[in-house]
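User: quick one
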Amino acid sequence: MPDLEAVVTALQERVQRLDDQAAIYQLIANYGPAADSGWSEMAASLWTEDGIYDAQVGAWQGREAIAGMISGETHRKYILEGCAHILTMPYITIDGDSAVATCYGQLMRNDGDNFRVWRVTATRWELHRDPDGWRIANRVNKLLDGDPSARELLRQGIAEGMPR
Amino acid sequence: MPDLEAVVTALQERVQRLDDQAAIYQLIANYGPAADSGWSEMAASLWTEDGIYDAQVGAWQGREAIAGMISGETHRKYILEGCAHILTMPYITIDGDSAVATCYGQLMRNDGDNFRVWRVTATRWELHRDPDGWRIANRVNKLLDGDPSARELLRQGIAEGMPR
Amino acid sequence: MPDLEAVVTALQERVQRLDDQAAIYQLIANYGPAADSGWSEMAASLWTEDGIYDAQVGAWQGREAIAGMISGETHRKYILEGCAHILTMPYITIDGDSAVATCYGQLMRNDGDNFRVWRVTATRWELHRDPDGWRIANRVNKLLDGDPSARELLRQGIAEGMPR
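Assistant: Done. Structure below.
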């Protein structure tokens, strides 16, 4: 091996990229269990201090506001009837301490005998690396009801990094 | 680079963490194809010898019992009508040779023209690292029908590792 | 550390394996946003030049044909009404410059008040590593309607690599 130091430096960069992708998967996989168990502080802690959740049916800024949404009447009703906030494996682009993840969100609601797929959204996560890890600076949901804004969100998420 | 050996040791630890997360994704991604193709031995091989599957509608201990469930009447009926056991990207906490993964399970059943979402569960995977890889020591499903036990399962899965 | 060079070489191999798994996740996570935003060239670019998409309802060979399907009448209608092509976390086997990923595909369609799960398929991705990254040489969908071909596809995908 001609220059072991250079090889190790290259490895460090690759491992950093993998660590980031793995950490962002963990962040997104945390949201559903936090939201569906009504753990409002945990859900809010996924955002930066002044992070935004723009869910189309409403928008909230800051951890306190986001926690308030989770512990609010509407959300509580879904939970007590039985619901699942399901997020799919995202497409991720990372640029230093910023990242964008794009995926689908599904809100499944218990309907007695079955579950119904109440909402399917395109969802965009604008992420920032804080000292204690990746956090959500801005999350945007767009309902997939044919409105062009959802297509725009999806297109923007994959345009930032063509697959190599 | 001041101490190449220390740098490489640190890299090894990070790569081990990534390997574990990747292997647990593979384990969980294997279950659906095994179950939905009726390959009972493959599905059972994902568990430890005396592993438990507590699926609320029934509980089975040991590979033989789990294989028997997969090849049993109820499961076979689902398969012949058309079904998909879908599992979402899990939240994972790893502690040495033990790990917990928490995600959602969906049982989709063919309904003629469409599919119905027959069951949506919170699902917890207590995993153990065997000489031949990660295996399931205990899997627990809780239907998301509003019962507090499902919320408890979700909460427990993310409490074990706050996102960093 | 007895032989630092050997340790680093082993690390490189593990990181290559992780890079491949991460890149294949990215490839699959790109398809939905490309297809659901009607970005036909992006969707087609995920295939090799002469790659095949055998979706059971139709089969297309080559990027031009695949782009034509995405920009065609049927697909456009789904998009304008609101749809989501959702793919689950795949099980992956890698062998040098070839790989197979096996997962589920769901086509969700907006139905006014709710979404319906219009199609659930077993989907197989035969992948090839090109100079510019992993590409799809052949993708096959089989509807999970009880037909044995879907079970065969699922079984084949996990048989190529027993979980270790």
